[in-house]
Amino acid sequence: MYYRRYNKEVNVLGKRWWDKSVIYQVYPKSFYDSNNDGIGDIRGIIEKLDYLKDLGIDIIWLSPVYKSPMDDNGYDISDYYDIDKQFGSMEDMDSLIEEGNKRGIKIMMDLVINHTSDENAWFIESKSSIDNPKRNFYIWKDPKPDGSAPNNWRSIFGGSAWEYDENTKQYYLHVFSKKQPDLNWENEQVRKELYKMVNYWLDKGLGGFRVDAITYIKKDNTFKSLEADDNEGLAHINAGSLNQEGIENFLAELKENTFSKYDIVTVAEAPGIPREQLKKYSGPEGFFDLLFEFGHSDLDVAEDGKWYTPKEWTLQEFKDALFKSQEVYNDLGFGALFLENHDQPRSLNKLIKEEDIGLSSAKMLATIYFLLKGIPFVYQGEEIGMTNVKYDSIEEYNDISSIDQYNSAIRDGLSKEEALTSVHNRSRDNARIPMQWDDSKNAGFTKGKPWLKANNNYKEVNVKNNLEAEDSILNYYKKLIDLRKNSEYSDVIVYGKYKGFMENDKNIFAYIREYEDKKLLILANFYSQNIKLKLNYTVEKVLLSNYGSFDISNGEIFLKPYEALVLAVL
Ligand code: GLC
Ligand code: CA
């Protein structure tokens, strides 16, 4: 067995191989279809590695490609040791790792260990009888005396979190869909099996893992009902299964038996961790290297989680969500910086008024998150300014949460149009539509029939056009990446402290980064009006600007709509 052991020598300066990295998320089903069956695949990713190399990224976070019945597009794994046929084979996966290595690109796989698919061999055995040795691999409970579910927890994709099994007359728990039964982490055997599997993959030489829904692994073991929050008498499952006391023991054990033995980077999907606890969860001493926090990305979702419930938000809230954790990361090292992923609508639609979506606003958004303290993530298509899709009917959607949200809106009395509008705004399919490569049919994603229809705007918004136009969003991303990795300001961008600047301004998004004798000011106009402001700093150099020209004189800066500047200041 080959272990790339964690090398303390390398770490004397607190520096690691991935410090300067930029991570690019690939949603394999939608990235590139190499055999024209309408579904993106691993060979397709290999074909596009040179594109990613040219963009300048270092690590690919690959959403799940394991064997799966695809109830939740691969986040329901039926065999951890196999690749799903629609994506390719284990040989393809090995060659992706190898071809990546040749280009200096590491692969970070998705690790889904809160639950499996109900078609996983473990679950099939577990379900077969009450005394099967694998029965306790999952969470089974007797019905209440009246036959109903053990408690009133509602799953994240809607409906009761319990599913009844006729055969053995018990219910099993599923935080997500009923085809995603939760593993029983209290069972030591389960944990051992999972660690073995994690190490199997790490031995292949991965760059790391993105760890799915990990803050759900510990349940409130009293399994008591919660106060209902809807008219069906159900209550959101978070209070019974998110960040429960004792989860630290599981996470520490996971790290000790797997991640800590390898020189890798881990990033955890970890909603709901109180700021005071971030230190325990992330950084060199934490359970993971990086954490995805969602405060800034879910600002447009109301408390009840229903997409049709209107929710206003302000720039101030957006800034506060991002900046508060930046202060924590000043001590911890790095945050995970992102605006988009496969669960979110496109950032341009979420953050910018529809009529203002364009080159300047897209580059402005890129600038403001990319230079915060942390490791930047780019989601496929974000680098060319892809936007949300508006399908005409719910039948055209694939995402299970969209379908659940639509049905619940209809149940609550909304019209079809209203229900559909909420799906347009929030569907996870907004991020899952085919990657737009060129202006040929299906955006050049496939010559077959794509599993999701391409966005109508692909003739303008595509990689080919972006590569050709000098002032494109893609070329701007390249400049940002270059500034981070290869410029004389690299250290300040990677290691510098975050410092607030005009934090309470209603129109401006700005901050300072500071390291040794260098100081950067990242300054952006978040809206469409012109702004004039006076600076207390001397501008030494303009490192990046999202317009061709800028207007700075005698300590005064004039900002055009959505203008963003990266300034070296004294
Ligand atoms: C995470 C994934 C999401 C998935 C869920 C269940 O939130 O990002 O896509 O549906 O976990 O695995
Ligand atoms: Ca294919």
Automatic annotation (TrEMBL):
Mind listing the GO molecular function terms for this protein? alpha-amylase activity; oligo-1,6-glucosidase activity
Q: Which SMART domains match?
A: Aamy (SM00642)
Gene Ontology terms describing biological process: oligosaccharide catabolic process
Question: What keywords appear on the UniProt entry?
Answer: Glycosidase, Hydrolase
- Catalytic class of the enzyme: hydrolase
Q: Which domain of life is it from?
A: Bacteria
Q: Which residues form the Glycosyl hydrolase family 13 catalytic domain?
A: 25-432
The family database entries (SUPFAM superfamilies) matched by this protein are listed as: (Trans)glycosidases (SSF51445), Glycosyl hydrolase domain (SSF51011)
InterPro entries per the record? GH, GH13_cat_dom, Glyco_hydro_b, O16G_dom_2, SusG-like_C
Q: NCBIfam families, alphabetically?
A: PRK10933.1
Protein family according to the UniProt entry: Belongs to the glycosyl hydrolase 13 family.
Matching PANTHER family, A to Z?
A: ALPHA-AMYLASE FAMILY MEMBER (PTHR10357), OLIGO-1,6-GLUCOSIDASE 3-RELATED (PTHR10357:SF178)
Q: What is this protein called?
A: Oligo-1,6-glucosidase
